[in-house]
Amino acid sequence: MTEVVFYLFALAAVVSAALCILQKNPVSAALWLVSTMFSLAAIYVLLNAQFIAAIQVLVYAGAIMVLFLFVIMLLNLGHAESDIRGPSTVAATLVIVGLLSIELFALLQYTPRRLASEFAQWPTFTDPSTVFVAGQVTQQAGAARGVVGAVAAPLFQVYLIPFEITSILLLVAIVGAVVLAKRKV
Amino acid sequence: MTSLVWLTVALPLLGFLVNGAVSLRRPQAKNLVSWVGVGVLAGAFLVSLGVFTDLWQHPPHQPIIVNLWRWLPVGALQIDMAFQVDQLSTVMLLVVTGVGSLIHLFSVGYMKEDPGYARYFAYLNLFVVFMLVLVLGSSFPVMFIGWEGVGLCSYLLIGFWFNDKVNADAGKKAFIVNRIGDFGFLMAMFMIWNSLGTLTFTGMVAKGPALLAPGSATVTAITLFLFLGCTGKSAQIPLYTWLPDAMAGPTPVSALIHAATMVTAGVYLVIRTNVLFALAPLSSTVVAGIGALTALFAATIGLRQYDIKKVLAYSTVSQLGYMFLGVGTGAYASGLFHLATHAFFKALLFLGAGSVIYAMHHAYHATHSHADAQDMRNMGGLKQYMPLTFWLMAIATLAIAGIPPFSGFFSKDEILAAAFARGETTPIYYVFYGMGLAAALLTAFYMARLMAMTFLGSNRTGEQERSHLHDAPWVMTGPLVVLGVLSAIGGLLSLPPFVGGSAALEHWIEPVTAPASAFFRLEMPHGSTELFLVGAAVLIGVAGLLAGWKATLRRPIPTAADAPAETGLARVVNRKYYVDEIYDAIIVRPVVWLSRMVLWKGVDQGVVDGAAVNGTARFSRGLGWLGSPLQTGQVGVYIVLFLVGALWILHAVAG
Amino acid sequence: MLLGPALGLSAVLFSLGVAGVLLRRNAIVLFMCIELMLNAVNLSFVALAQLHGASGYVMVFFVMTVAAAEAAVGLAIIIGIFRHKQSVDLRNINLLRG
């Protein structure tokens, strides 16, 4: 059952993304992108990452895309001439994207079973139950403390320093954006 | 004294250094230059006398090698700077230093008023240094140093008055034509090293007969290349054209370099390498043939020249031909004999001509005339004004014409007899004999013509000039007297048996020519044949002299200014059969064209400048231009490249 | 466990994002395509978090934060360029031409 729902939302995401990249109007493109993000949020829920789904909707779709739309309207880019690039670029795109797809799909062979068997061949391998132990720990933590708690523990313990640095990064970004966008420095 | 033979080279070298320094710093110090310049030559002559006396008392069977220092030790090739003292080199030593000293003394008077006095003596001393290295060298490379060095000094001295382009061109011509001969010498050296493994003369004598088959292609090639060098240095056909032009230099230079010493280097070379020439009969015939041909050819040109020095120049070429006829026939001693006697009488003739030109110059200078002081048509009747010069030159004329008992008779007669004798085994030598005899006739004729035009008849110089014509001062006439005596009695060097002599020179040289005698023994004619030949030679000489005298004075001779232009055959002969023009058209112009069109425009400008230098620059620019599309400033292009790179990394890491 | 299909979807979205980046000339739309790529990567992080633990979620957290900062600054730059050139077309942004 989950699979059907998953494929539904996956289809929605792909279609929205395709339409996003092909829209002439930047506003339309932004809205299609929002649609993609909503589909992804639904998929996150299916993947048992509810907290992330909420964050996705709040931050990405709610803040970042709104910012995009603000800028589009500020610059008055509503009227759109076609800005898709010429045939040579289309050809180059097809080539590059084709190669990329091939490359990425080749990586799909790595199913969990294959990963496990590759782990088993490592020289320091001792216990099969230690494979993917982290995932099980997370699920137990999620069952014990709730979805937010499952993320909070590593975030404020193991990854504390990157967390603090990220906050400084955001401060810098705010100041930078304000300075760059001012009329007169 | 033999071990001090290097002094003969060191003294003139010292003279060169001192005179050179004086010429650069204080050119007015002419007295010092005179004493140093002549003094070192006199010293060298005394040392040579000492060496000769040593050898006279104890004639060696093997040459004495005086080793100076190790020069080129290169693996199997060990060449030392060493001098070889043997009978042949001592004779040459005496001739060079003796006649050289006299000419140096003459130059003191002749060049007295020249501003380049010190430079002149520096070059002259340097020339003697190189000539002695050539003559004394114990191996081919050392001899080659002298060979090239005398060529250099010849260039420096011919173009001594270089401000006049004609003189500079003459110097260049001499050097370049000599260089062609040097190529032959070098090739011969390479082949000798290749086949014999040694470059010393003693080594050549030891290994030559063993390693070279008689008449083989190798030894013939070696000797022909050596002879090519000789034709260049000793002005034989085809490389003789530089010698008449070399008369542009001062007259004592013509006397020393182009009569007595440098041009005889070729003859010396053939005598030195007699073992090789004896092993190659074909080459010897070529040598004799070219010698005979040159003798006759040059003599014909001398018949119609009006410049007194040009007549003597062609005479020199002709007499050198005689020497080569002699050594080609195998009569090495006769060739050497004629070399020595020719040095005496030709130097005398040139120095005498120098005295005449000196007097004519002064005469024209006093009257501010621009007539040519060297043209015989402007002379005439000088006997009454310059009697001593006349009589001395007359002695030389008789000698060169081969009139007994003067020196030239003995030497020339020996060569002709040798050619005739060789004709028994190789008939072509009869032809050479005939050519030599004809050349003797012409020699007597043009020498008599020269004497008649210059000294006899009525004077054509001009009324006012006559008062300025007189004999040269004693510093110049003194050497003439000494040379006159030598020309007269020089025959004593090697009197033939039929007048009771002992052929002294021939016996003296025997240890040096012995290697050749092992292969070929020349039988000189005896008895009635010999007397017949002698008689024929004398008769020819006398006839030539009389004919020349009478023919020249038959009609009054116009002065150079009034003379009508030459026509017909006379004109062709006067213009030396246009040989220079032919060489110019066939050789010089194509070479100049080649170097200008192909080598300069084609190779240098096109390939080296165009392709290599500019081409590299253009190539780099092109590469840069090819790379410039990478930096368009277009963000879109940058994105594409960025993604291509990312894709690549992904493939490298994960694929 | 939806690992396979999720990763496949992630690949597709990423490829679409790359195509968009290559094809569009409008700088703002280009940015949006870059956001699309970031979303695809987020999806694969989340999918793998089931195997490798909460560090996957933490990565997604940080990616989103940084994406926000980057979007802010990038759009500020685009505004600056627009003031200069009156256009956000990539063809006109070529002052770095060499």
3D architecture notes:
The complex is a heterotrimer of chains A (185), B (655) and C (98). Chain A is 77% helix and 0% strand. By secondary structure, chain A is mainly α. Chain B starts with 6 loop residues before the first helix and ends with a helix. Chain B has a two-stranded antiparallel ribbon. Helix content of chain C is 80%, strand content 0%. In chain C, helix 2 (27-52) packs antiparallel against helix 3. The chains are: A mainly alpha (185), B mainly alpha (655), C mainly alpha (98). Chains A and C meet through helix 1, helix 2, helix 3, helix 4 and helix 6 of A and helix 1, helix 2 and helix 3 of C.
Total count of strands of chain C: 0
Mean of residue pLDDT of chain A?
A: 85
Overall SS class of chain C: mainly alpha
Task: Please tally the β strands of chain A and state the result.
Answer: 0
Shape of chain A: extended
- What gyration radius of chain C follows from the Cα positions, in whole Å? 17 Å
Residues in β-strands, percent of chain A: under 5%
How many strands, which pairing sense, and closed or not: the largest β-sheet of chain A? Answer: none
Assembly annotation: heterotrimer
Helical fraction of chain A: over 70%
- Considering residues with a beta carbon less than 8 A from a beta carbon on another chain, report the largest interface and each chain's count: A-C, 86 and 68 residues
Distance between the termini of chain C: 52 Å
Number of helices, where a helix is a run of at least 4 consecutive DSSP H or I residues of chain C: 3
Number of helical stretches of at least 4 residues of chain A? 7
Rounded to the nearest angstrom, the radius of gyration of chain A is: 22 Å
- Written as H for each helix and E for each strand, in order along the chain, the element string of chain A is HHHHHHH
Query: What is the mean predicted local confidence, pLDDT of chain C?
Result: 89
Distance between the termini of chain A: 58 Å
**Which stretches of chain C are poorly predicted, pLDDT < 50 over at least 5 residues?**
none
Please report which band the strand proportion of chain C falls in: under 5%, 5-15%, 15-25%, 25-35%, 35-45% or over 45%.
under 5%
Give helix and strand order of chain C, one letter per element, not per position.
HHH
